[in-house]
Amino acid sequence: MWAELLPIGRSSASGGYRRYAWTGADTECRAWFRTQAEARGLRYEVDRNGNQWAWLGDPGAGDAVVTGSHLDSVPDGGAFDGPLGVVSSFAALDELRARNAELGKPLGIVNFGDEEGARFGLACVGSRLAAGQLTPEQAHRLTDGDGVSLPRAMEAAGHDPEAIGPDPERLARIGAFVELHVEQGRALDLSGDAVGIASAIWPHGRWRFDFRGEANHAGTTRLADRRDPMLPYAETVLAARREARLAGAVATFGKITVEPNGVNAIPSLVRGWLDSRAADQDTLDTVVNAVEQAAREYAAAHGVDLGVVRESFTPVVEFDHALRDELARILGGDTDLQVPVLGTGAGHDAGILSGTVPTAMLFVRNPTGVSHSPAEFAAEDDCVAGVLALADVLEGLARR
Ligand code: GLV
Ligand code: MN
Ligand code: MN
Fold it and tell me: Which end of the chain is more exposed for a tag (fewer CB within 10 A), N or C?
């Protein structure tokens, strides 16, 4: 499975992946998913929001056990963020069949569409739509960096954009959802464990800062006469770092566009996106409010206008305690082995679904912790340990 996925959407320049929603690379990943489902004789379906499902047993029976993740990527993402969960799901199903496991419940594998939000700016579009956390009207207004709207992109990829919307009946079939994911930090490396269980996801969001000044000649405009939006932007980046450090949170400006983007022109517009996350809502509010306040002061000092728009937000997620404890019991087996339970600052479809269905996550050790980068890595032995843990969990839950 890895060998087949390896070349899809891979940049030869960076070695990273560019698998953005509803692009050719995404279509190839989706074709791969369908092939995997059909090769195993699973019932394949695409839901109204473009999420792909593969079923062993009849999902209509209800109380299904579902696993899966996503196949799209951030710009120059690693091979594991998303695909490890999907590949491991199919591999775990193979393992269960090899064991002749008795499954009393339907088992589903899902590939959620557009988890990273790399193209349209909003993460977890497929699961948000299904869970009713994003309305079709809001989704229809999303556009990519080239001005292509989400509906047009969906249409171009062969999906009907008019069909999108809440899917409560499909989600009601799920008794438990478990997402396996590569860890995006070093907690498991430090504890010496191959696999861990998620406790919570930090609240997080994305804010767009538009600094509008005046384009002018870089050689002839006196410094005193400039309204240069790059200056308050730069100061705001430093403020974000400072406020995050003071609050014990994180804040990142990782994306920026500049107009007119000429070497010898003072910019008319600097648009930067702030991604900020914290362990609790109050801390996150404190950081973002402080960054915005600082940005307003810097902008005013330079005669620059500032607009701030919150583009997405995900509140804190505390995964279902009963399900989490059950995973710990299953993975602990007859031993008193303590499987580490960890929180994360990364967002996941499991977090979106957690408001609707009992949800849990498994993390697989990442020896460097690096993620959202071509250098992201997990050792083969650890990936196998992840598959076996997932198979144990699915078997345990499907037997309940
Ligand atoms: C997704 O990986 C996110 O945490 O932004
Ligand atoms: Mn990611
Ligand atoms: Mn992911």
Answer: C
* Distances 150 to 105, 348, 387, 392 between C-alpha atoms, Å: 36, 20, 34, 38
Q: What is the pTM of this model?
A: 0.94
The one-letter code for the residue type at 69 is: S
User: Among 386, 312, 390, which Cα is nearest to 352's?
Assistant: 312
| DSSP for 297-330, written as a single string | HHHHHTT-EEEEEEEEEE--EE--HHHHHHHHHH
To test the ligand 1 pocket, which listed residue (277, 348, 352) has its Cβ within 8 A of the most ligand atoms? 348
Which of 124, 372, 373 has most ligand 1 atoms within 8 Å of its beta carbon, as the pocket-test mutant?
372
Pick from 367, 372, 324, 323: nearest CA to 345: 372
For 77, which DSSP code? B
For tokens 């609240």, the residue is 203
Q: How many CA atoms lie within 13 A of 88 on its CB side?
A: 37
Tokens standing for 68? 């899966």
For ligand 2, the distance from its centroid to the CA atom of residue 116, given in whole angstroms, is: 6
Residues of the chain with pLDDT under 70: 400
CA atoms of 17 and 23, how far apart (whole Å): 13
> Domain 205-314 maps to which CATH number in 3.30.565.10, 3.10.560.10, 3.30.70.360, 3.30.70.1230?
3.30.70.360
Q: What is the pLDDT of residues 307-355, one digit of tens each?
A: 999 999 999 999 999 999 999 999 997 777 789 999 999 999 999 999 9
pLDDT in tens, 3-47: 999 999 999 999 999 999 999 999 999 999 999 999 999 999 999
Output helix, strand, coil percentages for the chain, rounded to the nearest 5: 40, 25, 40
User: Into which CATH architecture does domain 2-202+316-398 fall?
Assistant: 3-Layer(aba) Sandwich (3.40)
H/E run at residue 46: strand 43-46
Q: List where CATH 3.40.630.10 sits in the chain.
A: 2-202+316-398
What's residue 400's pLDDT?
A: 64
10 alpha carbon, distance to own chain's centre: 19
Residue located nearest, by CA, to atom 1 of ligand 1: 347
* CATH 3.30.70.360 domain range(s) in the chain: 205-314
**Token pair for 111:** 């590939």
